[in-house]
Each structure stands twice: as C-alpha cells, then as structure tokens.
Amino acid sequence: MRIALDFAPMLAQWPLLLLGAAWTLGLTAISTLLGGIIGTGCAWARARGAAPLRLAVGAYVELIRNTPFIVQLFFIFYGLPAAGVLLSPVTASILAMTINLGAYATEIIRAGIVTTPRGQIEAGESLALSRVQVFLHVVLPPALKRVWPALVSQIIIVMLGSAVCGQISVEELSHAANLIQSRNFRAFEAYILATAIYLVLAIGVRRLLYWAGPRFVFGR
Amino acid sequence: MVDFTLWDIVRNLLLAARWTVILSVIAFIGGGLAGLILLVLPLTGNRVAELAIGGYVQVFQGTPLLMQLFLLYFGIALFGVDTSAWTAACAALTLYSSAYLTEIWRGCVASIPRGQWEASSSLALSFGQQLGHVILPQALKVAVPPTVGFLVQVIKGTALASVIGFVELTKAGGMIANVTYQPMLVYGCVALIYFALCFPISLYAGSLERKLNVGRR
C-alpha cells in the first residue's frame, strides 16, 4: 500500500498557520508575565508569609498541580458562567494558563528563595533595607537565576499545553490545523505541520528566554 | 426530562474514572518498558542510537501531547488500519511516557560515578552483568521518586484523550455537563476526582524524595 502525503495544500494555508503561531506566542507571553508575577508573590507568601497565607497558597498550588490543564480550562470557560462570570475564549485561556503557570512557578521560585544564604538577608537588613527591598533586590534576582532553567521549561510546557485552548475556539496553532484539515481533509499533513511549528516554537522560546534571562530578568 | 442527583453525577464520573486509571496504567507500563529499551540502547556505546533517541526525546518533549494524539489518531489510519480512539490514545500516551521516562532514567544512570563502570568492567563483568548487578540497582534508588512523580503527569495527560473522543473522566464530564446543565458542578467534581487520584501519588513521590535526600545532607 502507498501513502501519499501532499503538503502543497497546506502551504497554501500559510497565513492561517502564521496567525495561529502568533496567537500561541501571544497567549504564552501574556500568561508568562502574569503567571510570573503570581508565582513570585505566592513564592514569597509560601516562604515567608503568615501561616494561614502559607496554607492558602499551598492549597492553590496543590490543587492546580494535581488536576489536568484541560479540566481547569473547561471549568473556567464552561463552569464559571453558571456563577455569572462570562469570559470570552481568549480571556478564559489567558486566565487558565496564568493560574496554571502561577502554581508551578510558585514552587519553582520558592525553591530558589529558600536556598538564599541567611547571611545575604542579614547583610541586606544591616544596610537598613526594608523587608520588601531585601526581597526584591537581594533575595529574588539570584533566586531567579538559580531556577531559571526550570522556569523556562515550565513556560514551554504551558505553551505546549495551550494547544488545548483550540478546543474552546481560540484561534491558536492547533485550531488553525483543525480548520485546515476540515477544509481539505488532509488531517495528517495538517497536524504534522502544526507539530513541527510547535517544535520550532519550543526550541526558539527556550533560546530566547535563556538569552533574555540574564539581560532583562535577573542581571548577570 | 430525567433529573440528575448529585449522586448520579458522581457515580457516572467515578465509573468513567476507571478508564482514566486503565489508560494511565497501560501508558505507564508500556512507556516504562519502551523507555527501558531506549535507556539501555545508547549505553552500549552506539553513537547513532544515542543521537536518534536524543532526537526522539526532544520531539516528544517539544511538541504538545494533543498534537501527538491527533497524529497517531490520523497517522495509524493512514496505514489502512482501523483506528479507534482507544488504540490511538494508548499508543500516543505510551510513546509520550517512554520519551519522558527514558530521559528521567538517563539522568539517574548518568549520576552513577564512572568508577563504578570501570570497577565492574575490571572484574570482567559482561555489559549485561554490569547493568544488572552494578549500575541499575544503584540508579533505581535515585530513579524511584521522579518516576512516581511522572505518574501524576501521565494521569493528567490522559485527560487529553477526551479530545479524540475517548470516553474517560474528562469526556464523561463534558457529556454529563451537557445533559445536566450544571457545568460548574460537574467540572468541579471532575477536578476533585483527578485531585483524589493524583494528590496521594504526589505526596508519596515527595516523601520518597525526602527519604532519599536524608542520607545526602
């Protein structure tokens, strides 16, 4: 038997794929930014906060880390409207990705924070820095530097996970592949092309973040 | 119109959850066996195998599981084999698990000092004996916590099989939400069942890790 693969009809649909890739990157960028902020705040709360706060953050982290992303997304998109919170597919996706990344980032950043040598914090305090200043200028940058590879991997996992957002009709890359295969019935080619683009995006984003980390996030 | 009580919803979800469990077990065991082969091949010193397996791991870790599911679903059909969602989900999750497990275990084997290999080979042990008696028993100790931790990732991964129409917990949740008009309740229950499956395993993996680290501190 012969398998005839034909990629020409795929390449004719390149604007869709390009738009899809742009959506995937855009969703990832926004949720990385917001998730990073949540992760940093929660990591601080979990490492140094009061007991009830630690417990609340711990519950959030464990709840998110032990349920599938697709269920979180469906709960937000299909479930929340019952409580009167109506979200567009894009907002729901960003919210789900942010909450998801925030939980993982909390654990990762916390691991970096707790390994800060005690002497550095004391040195900061002896310079009359406030607690917030010590955290932002003394503790956080080296902590981020220590856990940067883990954080970057997690960001990429969230980006690849965003393929599910196509299921609630966000026009990201996997949705573009779905649309193309419904137009020309060449499902295998459409998905293999989309998969290849995901691979390129994953490698590219990893490179970009490894490059950007020391320059813009934590300094050398 | 039939009224669904909370118990009806939970009971149906729990019935569907066995498919999540079965799929996870198949993927985990199948992936483990395939991962073991992929682990041992490059250790024989075969450069080509090493590169090929490196590429395999990179592809499976660098692409969405959802796309892998779609590719297997439509790809197997390309060979004229009648694919069910069941075969495609098993195949995709097995391949996915094998890529992650082989990578986890590769790190564990690499953490065994070179001297162990050299000492065992100076005792004229064959490659198989070296692995079986010297390297793997030591690597196993380090490998158990992350392997148990990965099981959680497999269970969560099976939720994506719902997208290709495999009726497990997430898909059943969607169907029940559609007939009861209570998506919030239903997806909340779905999430709680996943949590009940995964959280004990996460705790167990965490405690194993702490035990392992006690000796090292």
Word description of this protein:
Chain A has helices at 8-11, 14-48, 51-65, 69-79, 89-114, 118-126, 131-161, 173-184, 187-217. By secondary structure, chain A is mainly α. The termini of chain A are far apart. In chain A, 45% of the residues are buried. In chain B, 82% of the residues lie in helices and 0% in strands. Chain B is built from 8 helices and no strands. Chain B has helices at 6-43, 47-62, 65-78, 85-110, 114-122, 127-158, 169-180, 183-214. The longest helix of chain B is centred in the N-terminal third of the chain and has 38 residues, at 6-43. Classes of the chains: A mainly alpha (220), B mainly alpha (217). The A-B interface holds A 1, 3, 62-63, 65-72, 74-75, 78-83, 156, 160-164, 167, 174, 177, 187-188, 191-192, 194-195, 198-199, 202-203 and B 58-59, 62-68, 70-71, 74-75, 78-80, 152, 156-157, 159-160, 162-163, 170, 173-174, 177, 182-188, 190-191, 194-195, 198-199, 202.
List the helices and strands and how they pair.
The complex is a heterodimer of chains A (220) and B (217).
Chain A: H1 8-11, H2 14-48, H3 51-65, H4 69-79, H5 89-114, H6 118-126, H7 131-161, H8 173-184, H9 187-217
Chain B: H1 6-43, H2 47-62, H3 65-78, H4 85-110, H5 114-122, H6 127-158, H7 169-180, H8 183-214
Helix pairs in contact in B: 1-2, 1-4, 1-6, 1-7, 1-8, 2-4, 3-4, 4-6, 5-6, 6-8, 7-8
